[in-house]
Amino acid sequence: TEHFFRGLALSGKKVLITAGPTYEALDPVRFIGNHSSGKMGFALAEAFYLNGASVDLVTGPTQLQTNYSGINVTKVSSAEQMYEKCSIIFPSAHIAVMSAAVADYKPIEVAPEKIKKTTEDLTIRLSKTKDILKSLGEQKKKGQLLVGFALETNNEREYALKKMQTKNTDMIVLNSLRDKNAGFGHDTNKVTIFDKEGNEFALDLASKQNIATDIVNIIIQKINA
Ligand code: CTP
Ligand code: CA
Q: To pair with 22 at 20 to 30 A between CA atoms, which of 36, 65, 110, 218?
């Protein structure tokens, strides 16, 4: 049995979180992926859970495991699989936070057998994956709170605000890559949170656990406002 204290601020609320990278297969042994560790998404899932929420965590391939058996974890691999799972869960969710680093492109053809090395040059054609966050933004109903992440290297603020608008999210968490201890693979992160009411919360560099707690607290305030 687990012994820990769960708050009640989000009891009765159903939360969907995405985490980790996606893997887009090239052939039976290779894929296109990225360096996302899943840490931010797992930390968010745990922070929501510890505030009493019912949590569905849909994660791409990662080494991580959660200590809380009450969190409903679904493991997926590709963007397509992540999309399928999210579209089933989202209609009944009160809050959705998309922290996964979803591949933007996937190979158009997946070779049925291992691709052998032949020519000096190899061209792989890619097509866009489905934008999960944007699709949930289009389905969003009154009373649902949708949160996206944005990873930018330039024009950060402008691009993040634009993502909030085009994807119809209520909040966007901008990952700042300016700090060398922030982002992919690190245990710490530096983020700025924007909401559609025009508020801006610039958080200090902190552990992903602390950032997750701050994000969840901002969401709790919003829900109770
Ligand atoms: N996202 C998603 N599905 C995708 C791509 C992105 O759900 N196929 C979500 C991410 O989980 C994140 C947000 O969209 O919450 C923004 O991701 P990001 O990569 O920063 O932006 P993109 O819209 O993919 O645009 P770009 O990479 O060109 O900046
Ligand atoms: Ca992207």
A: 218
Is 51 marked active-site?
no
Domain total in the chain = 1
Report how far residue 132's alpha carbon sits from residue 84's, in angstroms, rounded to the nearest whole number: 9
Segment 189-207, tens digit of pLDDT: 899 999 999 999 999 999 9
User: Which CATH number fits the domain that encloses residue 40?
Assistant: 3.40.50.10300
Q: Indicate the pairing of strand 145-152 with strand 126-128.
A: unpaired
CB of 160 closer than 6 A to ligand 1?
Answer: no
Looking at the chain, the whole-number percentage of residues with pLDDT higher than 90 is 91
ipTM of the complex: 0.99
